[in-house]
Amino acid sequence: MDTLQLTLADAWHRADTASKAIKIQRFNALSKTAEKKDLEIERYPEVGVAGSIEKATNIPIYDEGLLNKPSQHEVIHTLYRVGADFNLNIYNGNKLNLRIASAGVEQNIAGIEESQMTSSQYLRVASIYLELQKSFVFQTLIKEAIAEREAQLTEIKEFYKNGVKLKNDVLRVELDLSKQRQILLEINNDIKLLTQSLNIIIGLPDERAIKPDALDIAKMPTVPSYEDCLTQGRIKAYPYLISGEKVKLSELEVKQIKSNQSVKVNMYGEFYYANPQIFLYPYNPYWYSLGIAGVKASFPISSLYHNLYKMKKAKIELEKEEEQHKNTDDVLRKEIKEGYLRYEEAIERISVRRTDVSRAEENERIVKENYFNQTLLITDLLDAELQSLQSKFDIVSAAVVAKYKFYQLQNSIGTLTAL
Prior knowledge:
The chain has helices at about 10-20, 20-40, 95-160, 165-200, 225-235, 240-260, 305, 310-370, 380-415, and strands spanning about 5, 45-55, 60, 70-75, 80-90, 210, 265-275, 290-300. By secondary structure, the chain is α+β, with helices and mostly antiparallel strands. It has one domain (about 5-60, about 95-260, about 300-419): Outer membrane efflux proteins (OEP), CATH 1.20.1600.10. Helix 2 (about 20-40) runs antiparallel to helix 3 (about 95-160) and helix 6 (about 240-260) packs antiparallel against helix 8. The longest helix is centred in the first third of the chain and has 67 residues, at about 95-160.
């Protein structure tokens, strides 16, 4: 199977359609949309049709007492009826409109939660993708180190044959080479595991090989000021938006409970055909029709006391949600501040690591020259090479951390999916 060259943007696009976590939230949002539309349909009148056919017996008349045989009064035995009726809610304390408004808020929350899950999956994909980039760089570095060490070992063995170097030098280099090969094996396994994790999210087979873009250490994304980040966060941050919607939901709940103490007005009507005519006396075996229409008003007196503690509870819930919204703002400020500072810190760390690489490479060059000039021990050479390799690992790790901190900050602000 060919290796798939994959950019981070491609991985995000695939996660949009393949991530099961996103699909679950998407279904939830669709369910809330359908629920709101179902409530909107309740604005239309209830209309029904019905028909019936009945059989009636004669009416016994006990004209000589219950213990004697009654006489039979003949009636029309077969009765037919077919008709339609409707009922229209004219006013019910605005309950239906409030329920529809609440369903709209719940629909908004579901939509925000879907976006939040998408952003969370984007961050997860970015984390795995960056680790995969790092592992590929580590793989290249360790392969180069192994190739250099193998060439070095051949050279030291020649010196040993000529009596210039000790057997200990050969053994130490062989031991170090063995450790590096073990590290390469671990890195290769890391690549396989990271590839599987990424493939699961983006909907590819577990064993599909992926090649990420080369890690660009020199180019790091820029962020606006902390104040701008916070301003954006208060507009787009998902927990903050959800918290604000929950306040609206509690406000609507208070209004709905208030509506329990309102007059209810309904318009109703009925029209039917029936046979026989037994609506007016004298009865006759003919079809007749009748239409009825009217308006009904009622007021639930019991709501005056049933609503008392319901209202108290609803107001407490509203105060709680308002306080929760303020707390969410506190958490958001802290999260954005920390993310902003950690990103600046990560950028500064790259600069430090870049200097470390230069120093470690120069130190390695000097030590290697002195070792082969017989002025330093093999342990000095191996330590210098290890420090040089580690410094390269460190700057790659620092770049990955910085990029992840950037994406993490964008996730906190609510702008990650817009990148």
